[in-house]
Amino acid sequence: MLCGIDEAGRGCLAGPLVVAGAILKEPILGLNDSKQLSEKQREAYFEILQNKAEFKIVFCDHIMVDTKGLSACLKYAIETIKSHFNGHDILMDGNCNFGVQGINTMVKADAKVPEVSAASILAKVSRDRYMCEISSRYPLYEFEKHKGYGSALHVEKIKAFGYCEIHRKSFKLKSLSQPSLF
């Protein structure tokens, strides 16, 4: 059986990186890259996947992203998923295995391979739900609207209120940079 792996939140300014691995127990029609589906479609597939897939979801919080870096977080998550699905073939979306041996990669696998599509949906919905839940702790930032991505609204909120606890301090935005003295 094939285990598909994909991530959500790699380029976010706040919140966790979420990586999911999924094996389908039976075919599910219409799966696609989570970015190609509406929020309503992702939520519906997420519920279907609860019963029709075996999966492992790994969260790497903003502190881990800041201290270890994205590549180390991705390697940790992939190794965790690989260990969970020991003995299965593994295919990850993209072109890098982050130093984890025995992982195959494919660009756009999240749109081509149902198991990777499933992982894409599981990671995205899990992360989005987390950001909506945590938004009540940081109401000024409206995380429920942009989920921590670098949208114009989010950048506007950072300019107005500065960074909050869950922002990735290692991520720098040119639009927020102070002018150089040199």
Brief description of this entry?
By secondary structure, this protein is α/β, with parallel strands linked by helices. It is built from seven helices and five strands, in the order ββαβααββαααα. β1 (2-8) and β2 form a beta hairpin.
Could you name the CATH class?
Alpha Beta
CATH architecture: 2-Layer Sandwich
Major sheet size, sense and barrel closure = 5 strands, mixed
Helix content: 40-55%
Strand order of the largest sheet: 3-2-1-4-5
Give the low-confidence spans.
178-182
Give me the secondary-structure category.
Answer: alpha/beta
Written description of the protein model:
By secondary structure, this protein is of the alpha/beta class. The chain has one domain (2-135): 2-Layer Sandwich (Nucleotidyltransferase, domain 5). It has seven helices and five strands, in the order E-E-H-E-H-H-E-E-H-H-H-H. It has a five-stranded mixed β-sheet, sandwiched between helices. Helix 1 packs across helix 5 (114-134) and helix 2 (62-68) packs across helix 3. The longest helix has 21 residues, at 114-134. It starts with a strand and ends in a 21-residue tail after the last helix.
